[in-house]
Amino acid sequence: MTARLAGKVAVITGAASGMGAATAELFAAEGATVVLTDLNAALGQEVLARIEAAGGSASFETMNVASEADVARVYAAVGERHGTIDVLVNCAGIIGVDAPTHELAEADWDALFAIDVKGVFFSTKHALPYMIAQQSGSIVNFSSIYGLTGNDEFTAYHVAKGAVAMQTKQDAAVYGRYNIRVNSVHPSTVLTPLVEGIANAFPGGLVEYEKVNTTTQSIRRLGQPIDVAYAVLFLASDESTWITGVNLPVDGGFMAR
After folding, report:
1. Which range of residues forms the domain containing residue 201?
2. pLDDT for the residue numbered 237
3. Is the CB of residue 87 less than 8 Å from the CB of residue 11?
4. pLDDT tens digits, residue range 189-245?
5. Residue 167 C-beta-side C-alpha neighbours within 13 Å
6. What pLDDT is attached to residue 220?
7. Backbone CA torsion sign across 197, 199, 204, 206
């Protein structure tokens, strides 16, 4: 059976840990040449080493998604090295501070939007010329279930993820004429290293944290990074060539209830 991303060049932001790392390793296993990008070079190199040890093809670039100049530099280097970009996965993001609108500081709002919203914009902007030139491509953006609905916490994060959901639909509408597909995934709580640290500090530890955070899901467990990575793989691959503009919950049934 042919690897699902054989011959594809894929750029993944936020690839040094969590869902970005899982996606990078899965893409490489499925035949893609993967360009991992992240600010955390040490962790990025660890992901790169695992991919290469498994026989995959990858490289790592230190990149700040909030700096257009830095993004432009990396994408120019990718183009020079590989000639094109077939797949872009915008995974880089932060959670930011937990505050309601009337208590949010402008600096906290701007810091989060610089990464979670402008980061998607910059990478998409600089990947699109390659995709337009070859008349094909797939972009997968990471949003959140809280880009589709609200709750009592992390207002700025939820608003930012809503912006990513809308950017997905807008770009899908505009760039479909070039056979470029743009979709987003919307995870619920996934057991990334960040969440694991929060869970271990929770009263009752991971067991109690999982119980509390899955009571509104149909499937009563936390997600694993690979659960989301497989959804991204489908949207990146030619198996989804007639799917664009979709905001896909990958959430254990959270949005179903």
Report:
1. 191-222
2. 98
3. yes
4. 999 998 999 999 999 999 999 999 999 999 999 999 999 999 999 999 999 999 999
5. 25
6. 95
7. negative
* pLDDT tens digits along 195-205: 999 999 999 99
Distance CA 174, CA 7 (A): 26
- Nearest Cα residue to 36 out of 96, 83, 87, 80: 87
Q: Do 44 and 79 reside in the same domain of the chain?
A: yes
- Kindly state whether residues 234 and 244 are assigned to the same domain: yes
- pLDDT given for residue 257 in this prediction: 86
4 within some domain: no
**178 assigned to active site:** no
| 214, 222 Cβ separation under 8 angstroms | yes
- Please write the tens of the pLDDT for every residue from 171-180: 999 999 999 9
Residues 46 and 89 in one domain: yes
Same structural domain for residues 208 and 124?
no
Handedness of CA 155, 159, 160, 164 (dihedral sign): positive
**Do residues 165 and 205 share a domain?**
no
Report the predicted TM-score, pTM, of the whole model to 2 decimal places: 0.97
Q: Does residue 2 lie within any of the structural domains?
A: no
Residues 110 and 202 in one domain: no
Number of structural domains found in the chain: 2
| 38 shares its domain with 147 | yes
Whichever domain contains 229, its CATH number is: 3.40.50.720
SS3 assignment, position 138: strand
User: Model confidence over 118-164: pLDDT tens digits?
Assistant: 999 999 999 999 999 999 999 999 999 999 999 999 999 999 999 99
Annotated catalytic residue, options 157, 178, 209, 230: 157
